[in-house]
Known about the structure:
With 497 residues, this protein is α/β, with parallel strands linked by helices. The chain is 31% helix and 18% strand. It is built from 15 helices and 20 strands. The protein has helices spanning 20-31, 49-52, 84-97, 188-197, 222-230, 232-253, 258-274, 278-283, 301-305, 363-366, 400-420, 430-444, 472-480, 484-487, 493-496, and strands spanning 11-16, 37-40, 104-105, 110-116, 121-126, 129-139, 161-164, 178-182, 201-205, 212-213, 296-297, 310-313, 317-320, 324-327, 332-334, 337-340, 355-356, 385-387, 423-428, 488-492. The strands form 5 sheets. Strands 1, 2, 3, 4, 5, 6, 17 and 18 form an 8-stranded mixed beta sheet that branches. The chain is globular, with a radius of gyration of 23 Å. Mean pLDDT is 95; it is low at 1-6. Bound molecules: 3-acetylpyridine adenine dinucleotide. 3-acetylpyridine adenine dinucleotide binds at residues 60-62, 144, 150, 152, 165, 182-188, 205, 207-208, 294, 317, 341-343, 454, 456. InterPro entries: FAD-bind_Monooxygenase_sf, FAD/NAD-bd_sf.
Amino acid sequence: MSGEATVVADTTTVIIGAGFAGIGTAIRLLQSGHDDFVILERDVRPGGTWRDNDYPGAACDIPSRLYSYSFAPNPDWSHTYSGSGEILAYIDTMIADHGLDRHIRYSHLVTGLEFDETAGTWRVDIADRKPIVARTAVIASGPLSTPGYPDIPGIDEFTGHRMHSAAWDHSYDFADKKVGVIGTGASAVQIIPELVRDGAEVTVFQRTPGWVLPRLDRAISGSARRLYGAIPLTQNLARQLWFWGHESVAVGAVWNSPFTRVIEAVAKANLRAQVRDPWMRRQLTPDFRAGCKRLLMTSDYYPALQADNCTLVTWPIARICERGVRSVEGIERRFDCLVFATGFEVSKQGTPIPIRGRGGRVLADEWSRGAYAYRSFAVSGYPNLYFTFGPNSGPGHNSALVYMEAQIDAIVTAIGLVRDRDLTLLDVHQPAQDAYNRAIQKRLEHTTWNSGCRSWYLTDDGFNATMYPGFASQFIAQMRTVDFTRDFRAVAAADSR
Length: 497
Ligand code: N01
């Protein structure tokens, strides 16, 4: 393809995953004049997390205006916070609008990546198919894509129906069924009100109560939508208002500060207003700092817990047995169905795909104590390989898409450099990466995530490889100021011949 570097490869760029990050990277590549790329998607449909998490009640707890690409605002959002179906439809529209279908290869499960130092290319292994060779690989497979089941003894002995929040069985009729829900995180608080509404007899097993803030969801009227459609400035204005509103929350939700108490006070007032029974209020009062685990944004969870067909159980589950769940004292509750809203496999290795870089080094080994990268998107020794949602790029207060877009822009700049300078190799310097991580880990010490609770943000050893300790605006600035000349080693094709 004219304009692309001289690449002895099947394609210039391989993008792994057709969710928000993969599709966003593809659109940005097209907009920058790169047409030679493929998107490898393990499923038969695009959408990533919004395809997989289609449980009843699945919706975004970040406002729609912030949960869409900044370069493609959607005037048609029906609610302040959109449901998963509407978000999935938005992704489909993006694919159609940008003609991305011709780039996507469905049912392509990537099983490994290996760098060929001489050629300066990545061999991308794919289950049951021929490998693809590419100059650059972009990991856009999402950090939360593999359902996680708890290591409760006897989990496989249960003979009733079971499902995970991220692998919902829509054929199951919950009406009048005895259902046990394990977990009370961001997914569970969306599922439970729907199951209660469906007439199931719901038992909620809570290990740790979370901080709950009201989610003020409103339908967006037809006239407001027409206004947004007609005057794009209003969409950007709404986006900016939400963005800076969320940035202000970081002062308490990210930094362990007096403002954390303000969030806790608001959440406690919400609890008092919504829950009458003192025993239940005590059970629902968290014993850790707000923000340490993800804040739960919901207005219908507490009412659902108090419905006649819902019971909150706070004793620890000792084991799962053939018919249900048992406590240490031998109390047994029987169920027709168990719902695991127990989160995801978050491997310390940061990505489930085995990756071999320069000199045969193995990323999983290097990340065995926790993942790290240079400014979250590149790792020394793994040239021409980039991460979206990479190490320490998680927000505790703002839209993940804002962070993802900032990474994508840096990635597209890197790919442009390789093309324009005909490089075989662009590899970040180890000292630059080390200096960045020392600073990140130092800043993490003062965050709510390191204030002493257990969450998927930390490894078992307490290492935080997931969250970015700062404002989203700081993250955007650090991605815009990546110095490819100072911090990266570049090898030109002419030099390597
Ligand atoms: O998973 P989680 P999630 N016995 O890991 C409990 C994103 N998200 O799917 O707190 C009993 O948060 C566990 O208890 P504890 C978002 O980034 C976004 O809900 O560890 N309970 C907890 O209650 C979020 O952070 C949206 O004590 C056990 C629950 O299971 C991430 O996905 C919506 C247990 C797991 O909570 C994950 O959220 C939904 C055991 N052995 C999710 N093991 C948006 O709207 C685990 N638990 C954008």
